[in-house]
Write a structure and sequence with these properties.
Blueprint (H helix, E strand, L loop, with lengths): L11 H23 L9 E11 L9 H8 L4 E3 L5 E5 L9 H20 L5 E3 L21 H13 L5 E6 L3 E6 L10 E8 L4 H18 L5 E2 L2 E2 L5 H8 L21 H10 L16 H7 L6 E7 L5 E11 L4 H19 L6 H4 L2 H14 L4 E3 L5 E3 H19 L4 H17 L3 H11 L4 H14 L9
Antiparallel strand pairs: 1-3, 1-4, 1-7, 2-3, 5-6, 7-11, 8-9, 10-11, 12-13
Length: 471
């Protein structure tokens, strides 16, 4: 979905031709996996961060075109709404200083955008759902100018047969509403981590990323509010799933259908067989670049999404896009979460994984994820030892030591490991995630979302981790 397109309406023949191309490319990918044609280079990491633009009152301000033009760097691109934009960083090895390098790059881009946006009457906010957002902001007039977003909206509404999106979220409070287009998706902003792995480890990486989704969504929760209602600790999860729901056997935003067994081919076969085509563009690259398969995969938003990319020498590679974390609160918070995730992934990828389904059935891992999204660090989750754990205890006693071992294996310096993992430990021990801080302030302020955003922005600009923000 990152590429721009020309047309936004498509003839029936375009869908037929695209489906044929998609079938051919899916067969080719399956053959490549069988032939071990994918890259086996060492681990590579990267991220994408979605941001909000707000005015002095804390309300969304539709100026991403102006900010992006003024910043003028390829790493900053539009998102669905004109009050959102996205940061990208160059991928690096996680070994040694790699994680710190990504953190430094993220901070530099943020600082440049903040300094550029200020004269334009805008400031940046990194938060899962903007508390001041209301349905009046989520209109097509606020959609970014790129054709691909117009096309996405038209095709989603076509598959819905014109029916509005129905939102029904029950948490601390309840919210029920209908919406006429895809702009609800613009209410969710996230931190997405990428992990490129050797082909023979791709299935294991996908499976462990599923297992770790529950603790990751709980520690990073930063979206308790939508339209003035306290809902889930990570309300992004039900909102995104419902925002692009349409007719079909499987929701386009989901936890998936099962663990991978030998490889990731089943996920791309599911894509081809179970998900209607949204954007039937003509094939503009050679078949060996898998353009139709990659475009179609970009319109299916699993919380852990397999990605096909290419190394600098043209060798195709496989990576996992871990999508469960909300944006924010600060760079040190997000860097600590990144280090925690990558450390855990390295540790678990080094373990035997003969029968993960027997240790933690997929349906249990899925239940863990939604429970953790709903109540955050207060969740109780089933784990690999067959026991039920309070999630906070699991993080403190099992996962933090495991992440440390993984980071040591990556030859990360001890000072950085301590700083990042102590940030996670303090957050979990105190229970003060971004969501919990927001919920507490919202209640204490008499449900004043504008005051909440202004105070959040002030705290965010200090750069201090959220567990130190205080009341």
């Amino acid at each position: 979905m990152g590429q721009e397109i020309v047309e936004s309406s498509f003839a029936h023949e375009a869908f037929q031709q695209f489906r044929q191309h998609l079938r051919e490319e899916t067969q080719l990918l399956t053959q490549w996996i069988a032939d071990r044609h994918f890259s086996n280079r060492d681990l590579i990491i990267g991220l994408e961060l979605e941001m909000c633009l707000v005015d002095s009152a804390g309300l969304p301000v539709a100026k991403n075109d102006e900010v992006i033009r003024a910043v003028d760097i390829p790493a900053v691109v539009p998102e669905l709404a004109r009050f959102n934009l996205e940061f990208n960083v160059d991928p690096v090895s996680p070994r040694g200083q790699g994680i710190q390098q990504i953190s430094d790059s993220l901070q530099a881009t943020w600082s440049r955008c903040r300094n550029t946006a200020a004269p334009l009457g805008a400031s940046l906010l990194s938060i899962g759902i903007l508390p001041t957002l209301n349905e009046g902001h989520l209109v097509l007039d606020n959609m970014s100018s790129l054709h691909r977003y117009r096309a996405l909206n038209q095709q989603v509404m076509r598959l819905r047969r014109g029916r509005p999106t129905h939102v029904d979220i029950s948490g601390v409070e309840s919210l029920v509403c209908d919406h006429l287009d895809v702009m609800l998706e613009a209410g969710t902003t996230s931190l997405q981590l990428h992990l490129q792995v050797p082909q023979q480890r791709a299935a294991d990486a996908y499976n462990w990323s599923l297992v770790l989704s529950a603790p990751m969504v709980a520690i990073s929760a930063n979206s308790p509010l939508l339209f003035g209602k306290l809902l889930w600790q990570e309300t992004r999860v039900p909102l995104f799933e419902q925002a692009v729901a349409m007719d079909g056997p499987i929701n386009r935003v989901s936890f998936g259908t099962g663990y991978a067994s030998a490889d990731l081919s089943f996920l791309f076969e599911e894509n081809e067989q179970l998900y209607p085509v949204l954007l039937p563009l003509e094939r503009d690259q050679e078949v060996h670049r898998l353009p139709s398969l990659r475009l179609h995969n970009g319109t299916i938003w699993r919380w852990n999404r397999p990605i096909v990319g290419y190394d600098d020498d043209g060798t195709p590679h496989l990576r996992i896009e871990h999508r469960v974390m909300a944006a924010g609160p600060t760079v040190i918070d997000m860097t600590s979460q990144m280090a925690f995730y990558y450390g855990l992934m390295v540790e678990y990828l080094g373990r035997e994984n003969k029968d993960l389904e027997a240790s933690l059935p997929f349906l249990t891992a899925r239940s863990n994820f939604y429970d953790a999204a709903r109540v955050g660090l207060k969740a109780n989750v089933s784990w690999l030892d067959g026991k039920k754990w309070p999630l906070r205890k699991l993080v403190l006693e099992e996962l933090l030591p495991a992440a440390r071992r993984g980071l040591i294996a990556l030859q990360v310096d001890a000072t950085s490991i301590d700083r990042w993992l102590q940030t996670i430990e303090a957050r979990v021990s105190s229970g003060r995630t971004g969501s919990q801080w927001q919920a507490d302030f919202f209640t204490r302020s008499g449900r004043d979302t504008a005051a909440l955003v202004r105070e959040y922005r002030s705290r965010q600009e200090t750069g201090e981790p959220v567990h130190e923000w205080g009341d």
